[in-house]
Amino acid sequence: MIKCDEFFKELIASDINFFCGVPDSLLKDICAFITDNSINHIITANEGNAIALAAGYHLATNKIGLVYLQNSGLGNCINPLTSLVDKEVYSIPILLLIGWRGEPNKKDEPQHKKIGRITLKILETLEIPYRVLDNNFKEIIKEATNYFEKENHPFAIIVKEKTFEEYRLKNKKQTNFEFSREEALKLIVPLFEKEAIIVSTTGKTSRELFELRDLNKEGHEKDFLTVGSMGHSSSIALGIAISKPNKNVYCIDGDGAIIMHMGVLSTIGSTGPKNFKHLIINNFAHDSVGGQPTAAWNIDFLKIGKANNYKKILSAETKEEIIKKFKEFKKSEGPILFEIKVNKGARENLGRPTISTVQNKKDFMNFLKSSIN
Ligand SMILES: Cc1ncc(C[n+]2csc(CCOP(=O)(O)OP(=O)(O)O)c2C)c(N)n1
Predict the structure, then answer these.
(1) Class of the 181-370 domain?
(2) Do residues 167 and 33 lie in contact, with contact meaning Cβ atoms separated by under 8 Å?
(3) Counting CB atoms within 10 angstroms of each CB, which of 70, 206, 217, 258 has the fewest?
């Protein structure tokens, strides 16, 4: 395994000292090390932003930035990779550090399988050279920098599971609210009307919701678990809400997920479905992949909701406030945004959904079919 400080030192020695990207579970140790030790580090809303940010950095400095991402984020990068930094357009060098979820022949969740199988093929199609990271990291970084001397184009380093030694984030920004995300979910799930349609976001929110249904001896058919496609659960909920105008449709979102594709708020606000209920469980962090801070520390979701034409906005952080405002949330006309502020952190023994994604979809569609429009 590679020590994060040694890898980081080698990058700095190679004059790579600008870092940006979206955190990933396989990269959580090196991301945490960068968060603690680099002053030139920006966590971006999505991975495409990071490519463009590193491009701007290069334009201003003639230096090479490092963009880190989970391979699922390649989807968000294809456009700036092909139409901005590619050799046939502006020809801009960037070092990519890509976490390889869903590596073939390794057990992983359904949302990682396809992207895991095609990650290297995508890079080949994009004509981006790559190396899979191993203990010879010095040689691999050297190969990348040699490439950058000849070519102005991205080079990728692929990171398998357990490549980096453990590093725990020191620079922890701590909130002091009453609940964790799971505790807040425990409080609010019984408050939904029995027939409520729920779309939950990527990461531990969906995993906790799944376990909570089991704990409460309920089925899972009312919940669509957005296990992948981070940032898109509210668009899924919007598609349902406009097709089921007489039923409340709830999206349980995360701060990192909303920020990733925040443009959707303008679509929701201008489409204006009265039955659209948007809940943000805001823990100010990418909690599911290591707890790195999101931009939630510096922005105001309530003002953003208002400015995007949501009809009402609510916020709560204590048990009393949550229970009281949840009633208002249920009965008020949407689109309505309700932010619940919580602390980051999750149970070590949190499981994963035990029904397949396709079964989840079938059960959910049957549930929607049986409910009146
Ligand atoms: C496109 C994409 N990039 C990165 C990830 C990795 N990822 C999974 S969950 C998550 C964090 C989500 O943060 P937030 O919405 O705030 O929810 P929290 O985990 O804090 O509950 C990230 C970055 C992903 N699944 N997809």
Answers:
(1) alpha beta
(2) yes
(3) 217
Dist. CA 17 → ligand 1 center (Å): 25
How sure is the predictor about 173, in pLDDT bands with cuts at 50, 70 and 90?
Answer: confident
- For residue 299, pLDDT beyond 70: yes
Q: What is the 3-state secondary structure (H, E, C) of 87-149?
A: CCCCCCCEEEEEECCCCCCCCCCHHHHHHHHHHHHHHHHCCCCEEECCCCHHHHHHHHHHHHH
User: Phi/psi zone of residue 148: left (φ > 0), alpha (ψ -120 to 50 degrees), beta?
Assistant: alpha
* 94-99/130-132 β-pairing: unpaired
Mean pLDDT of 159-186: 94
Q: What's at 96, amino acid-wise?
A: L
Please indicate whether the domains covering 4-159 and 181-370 agree at the CATH topology level: yes
- Atom of ligand 1 at shortest range from CA of 258: 15
How high is the pLDDT of residue 171? Answer: 75
- pLDDT value at 372 more than 80: no
| pTM for the model | 0.97
Cα–Cα dist 332/54, whole Å: 43
Residue 373 predicted with pLDDT over 70 = no
Cα(76) to ligand 1 centroid in Å equals: 13
Residues flanking ligand 1, CB < 6 Å: 22-24, 70, 72-73, 76, 181, 201-205, 230, 254-257, 283, 285-289, 294
- Give the nearest ligand 1 atom to 25 CA: 6
String of DSSP letters for 310-324: -SEEEEE-SHHHHHH
Topology of domain 4-159, per CATH?
Rossmann fold (3.40.50)
Tokens 């490092």: give the residue: 66
Q: What residue's CA is closest to ligand 1, atom 16?
A: 256
Residue given tokens 């030694």 in the structure block: 165
Biggest alpha carbon–alpha carbon distance for the chain: 64
Domain boundaries along the sequence of the chain: 4-159, 181-370
The alpha carbon of 112 and the centre of ligand 1 are apart by a number of angstroms equal to 13
**Distance, first Cα to last Cα, the chain:** 55
Ligand 1 mean position, distance from CA 98 (Å) = 15
- What's the average model confidence in pLDDT over 166-176? 88
- In the reported structure, the alpha carbon of residue 256 is separated from the centroid of ligand 1 by a whole-number distance in angstroms of 6
Six token digits for residue 192? 């939904």
d(CA 107, CA 111): 12
